[in-house]
């Protein structure tokens, strides 16, 4: 059955001939059957471009006239969302720019190529607008609203977002009509998702609410590899524009997915791509935790520290950054900055591994100094330093025996201070501090072959006494 015949059987061949929606829902074939037939016709081999263009326009008529209950309320609620997701994917592929054969050549086809792309985009955009309008209309329904949120939206929103982001700005492959439709689509997309802006759509409404940035990056990832990113001229622009919508603190968890493409762009020989890559890197550095960002940058720009030869180890940027961080930590007296340093220091220790032994002298002074000073009710600095000490012992345990006395003294002093503190420190924070200190004492005992003895006490949680070489020091 041809699509035009299918529409005639539904009496949807023109807006003026629409029947009452309730009658249509009762007499028309199920939505699953109709959508499956449309997908089959559209994906069939040998279908010409003009035929597909006609199908897209007919599909727009179908979505405009279809009743929401008929479209979304079929007997198989898990089938229709999948079919809609497949249909959106097929239409995005139909409107996408064909892949370039090389990174220097222009797009395939003749001079009218971009005009054809813009026309396809406009037609597909109208279909997406009609579909999202139906989704928005049904969101308040008690029976179908939950289906929209849980099943239909996750399958469609990411793909439609990339489609709209590709065509919303003035580019060689867009026209005034396609840009207008894409901008309208982007606005409706944000509204359907229950957000107030594109940034909120990607980031989430709050720090604890997950946005859709990860899903969008997952869809873009295959197009952002070293081998593929130049084959589609729109990919780099979609990535760059999407990246700039996400700011702190939402960008930090996605550093591993946004940093490699930015470095690829900046390392390209074309000046336009270099500038785009530098702009992406600048945005990343401004909106993520700088120390962790530096670690990820160094992981790309230099070899792993453990794989370098002995002669080159001392001169690597990773070691130089850590030396600079430790120098600032020793001299820092402002509590907010001490908390930031201490929270991120464990990442350096984990990255260097056994090579952290090269920095033990200065690191020991930092650890002792930070354990001595209470930094407020949350104790973020001391908790971070305890985690740093724990990681250091685990990675550089052969070097711990000679530093046992100094570290034990600092830990015991902190345990005594926390246990006798009658201030405003909450009990859960005290418990976390004592637990972290106990873990460090146990690790020190293991790596010193039993020179430290830890026993659980009654008056002081987790630790009452520590004996060193047979001499007991009571807390």
UniProtKB/TrEMBL annotation:
Gene Ontology CC: cytosol; nucleus; TTT Hsp90 cochaperone complex
Superkingdom of origin organism: Eukaryota
InterPro entries listed in its UniProt record: ARM-type_fold (IPR016024), Tti2 (IPR018870)
Family per similarity comment: Belongs to the TTI2 family.
This protein's name: TELO2 interacting protein 2
Lineage of origin: Eukaryota, Metazoa, Chordata, Craniata, Vertebrata
Gene that produces this protein: TTI2
